[in-house]
Amino acid sequence: MNGFLLFVPFLLIRFGLLSALNKRAVKRAAHFAPMRKDERWVYWMYQISNVALFVCLFFLKIEVDISWLFYTGAVVYLLGLVYCTASIVNFAAPSKEGLNTSGLYRISRNPMYVSYFMIFAGCALLTQSLILGGIVIVFILSSHGIILAEERWCIERFGEAYRKYMERVRRYL
Questions:
Q1: What's the pLDDT score for residue 165?
Q2: End-to-end distance of the chain based on CA atoms, in angstroms?
Q3: Which of 27, 28, 48, 151 has the least C-beta neighbours within 10 A?
Q4: What is the DSSP letter of 67?
Q5: d(CA 69, CA 44)
């Protein structure tokens, strides 16, 4: 089976489900917080790693076998899809102020990113590709930089409400 097929459910959830739930949320999810000059490289690494994930999966195959690597990859991937679905549903319904603090956002400030990490790590395990695994690591590290910029932007936009949210809820898990 072609590895790209792993990307299809992710795309359907990330774009299709979110669009069906709230068209304005699609625009919110695509918004990048302003990056400082010294952070722009993080943005580009994030974008390049996104494209690399997409392209790399076209050239990889999934071989169904009876191994711990295959089963671990399948479990991580499927849990990532479930977590992504739940985080998308929660993201589509922010508070009146525009802040997401309910559902999974009560336990993680970034459940969508966490689900992406799980999905892409599952893809790397399922395809047993060290190259894809390396790309996933670059994606995770660059995502952290994007998240730090988003947090700075949220503090500017939501002020004390976001600071209190940060004190209550962890960044990832």
A1: 96
A2: 32
A3: 27
A4: S
A5: 31
